[in-house]
Amino acid sequence: MSDTAAVPQHCPTPRELDDLELLSTGALAPIVGFHVTSDVAPEVEQRAPASVVETAEPDSERLISLSLPAEVRAQAEQAGAVELVDPEGLPLARVTVPSGEVQPLTHAQYGPFRDLYLTPAQARERYAGRTWVPVTDALTVAQVEQVRALGPVVLVALVGHGTPELSPVALVRATCLVARTLPDAAVVAVPLAAHDDPEADHALGVQVLATYAGDDPVTALADDDGDYAPEAAEVVARDRPERDEQGLVLFFTGLSGSGKSTLARALMDKILEQGTRTITSLDGDVVRRNLSAGLTFSKEDRETNIRRIGWVAAEISRHGGLAVVSPIAPFDETRQQVRAMVEEAGGAFFLVHVATPLEECERRDRKGLYAKARRGEIPEFTGISSPYEVPTDADVVVDTTGRTIPDALGDVVDALAESGYLDLRDAADGEEPLRVLFVCTANICRSPFMELTARHLAGDAAIEFRSAGTHGFPDHPMNPEMTVTLEPRGVTGHEAFRSRALTKDELDWADVVLTAEAEHRQFILDDHPADFRKVFTLGQFVESLAGHEDLHGRALLEAVGSRRTTASPDLDVADPYRRGPEAAERAAAHIESLLRAALAALTPKASA
After folding, report:
1. DSSP E strands: which ranges in 434-570?
2. What was the pLDDT predicted at 234?
3. Digit-coded pLDDT (tens) for 110-157
């Protein structure tokens, strides 16, 4: 190491910070250092010497990497080391370059549940003799019973970047709540990160768990698609909010003069008129004055401005807020960086491309900017002397040419409603109807019977019905044996019925989803866990009504969505397909009984 060269500082990525913590505590042994990389050419990269990773598998060795910017790498090689700091600038460790060996300086000293982040030595000393159980998601009812049978246990919440199904804080909270219900359970948090290599990551995880457990047994949880334990379900529901409850960033991009700022302002007015959300506007000129004062209009500074806007917007979304931004944002890389920041914060990113053509933007040119750019008075002007990279991932594309603002805004409003994030469409006179989606397997037997019978029983009540199948046949008529069960009940409409497959749009449309079987419910939740509070089996929904006799409509849905019974297979409606007319009638009678109870609760106007 040079005696004169200053050791540069560098703040690693969240994944690298997790790896650093495990390296510092010895949890990754026999790996004791990083594989140092940078954005320099591959031929000048240097592998960590064998002494640093003596017995580690090559794949595992390369997983634990530290990527340094070229400038930092050059300074580190001159100084012989780089100092790694946390986002607040606290020095955590010194890493020798190029070997990658880690010399800890201190450890992270803040953060939720920090007292549960034990080193392997601390954990073994405190919890010797227990069974160690790795946890990456909230425990289900069946998994809790599995753990209960193990005796004294340590639930190891693997909270590293990209590993848990929930956010790290939610995973630890859910695990702690479950631990309180067990006779002798402790919780340890381990920041084991994912590195986009499932096989190598699994091997690394096995090694880390063995380091923590020492001579004690490690037991994996059984795969289970059942309901979460009640203590954990509430945490899951909060951590995976439904789309219309997520933090949201509405990002308008387009050429100068395209109408993006005008559309953004009109959208904000409509949101405020509805009165259900508060908004933070991060408009270009306002941000320039207050957040980005001192930045020039060079390409580098303009992109810095966008990233600052993105960071603030992401923080707003982290806390469930709604941010509206309307910069030109001409480069895809920067837009993707903002999207990543928002999604990392747990928010939703909705991209509006205002695709008004350059000729129309230049014709408008109220500020004379295009004319100045044509004369060379404004360098690097987007659309003239600097490119605009057309988004390929826009959620909606709007051309304002020859259109009124309300007309163009309608495209955005409709796309937002279809996405499920925000419904600003004008409601019809009176209360907006409830929307119920029935689901079975093929959408030719049970769910069409549910749809048609529910419509018959509900009469003129403010409620709409649809049906679909998890493996729905395309455009098939209703099963003949099930149609026979409709006539004695006075139910009509099966002639016009045609089956359809379940889609995300159908799920987003529905206020409540009622399935024939628990298997259908789990099929939905596997791909759409955020819909946890609105997907029930029909039998489960009816059982969950107990204690809510004074509630109806949306208030009832909110109550049973928060407190529900288990979706037990005992409550399923048996599949009558190809089982004869008696099976069809049994299924019909079972469904009718459940529908009468469900509809009487949802709306007092429904026939009981």
Report:
1. 434-440, 463-469, 512-515, 535-537
2. 87
3. 789 999 999 999 999 999 999 999 999 999 999 999 999 999 999 999
Question: Would the CATH topology of 9-39+59-104 be identical to that of 434-602?
Answer: no
Q: What is the pLDDT of residue 49?
A: 39
4: Cβ contacts below 8 Å, ≥ 6 apart: none
Domain residue ranges in the chain: 9-39+59-104, 114-239, 248-419, 434-602
Q: Residue 446: which H helix or E strand, with range?
A: helix 446-458
Residue 3 pLDDT > 90, yes or no? no
According to DSSP, residue 161 is labeled T
| Apex 383 CA angle, 378 and 389, nearest 5 | 130
Domain covering 434-602: architecture: 3-Layer(aba) Sandwich (3.40)
Q: Kindly state the helix (H) or strand (E) to which residue 95 belongs, with its residue range.
A: strand 91-96
Q: Which CATH superfamily is domain 9-39+59-104 in?
A: Sulfate adenylyltransferase (3.10.400.10)
Nearest-angstrom CA–CA distance, 581 and 585? 6
575/286: higher pLDDT: 575
Look at residue 46 and tell me whether its pLDDT is greater than 50.
no
Q: Which amino acid is residue 315, in one-letter code? A: E
What's the average model confidence in pLDDT over 279-283? 88
Fold for the domain defined by 248-419:
Rossmann fold (3.40.50)
In terms of Cα–Cα distance, which of 255, 254, 288 is closest to 369? 255
Long-range contacts of 527-534 (CB under 8 A, 24+ apart): 528/504, 529/165, 529/236, 529/240, 530/240, 530/241, 530/242, 530/243, 531/242, 531/507, 532/233, 532/236, 532/237, 532/240, 533/237, 533/242, 533/561, 533/562, 534/242, 534/510, 534/561
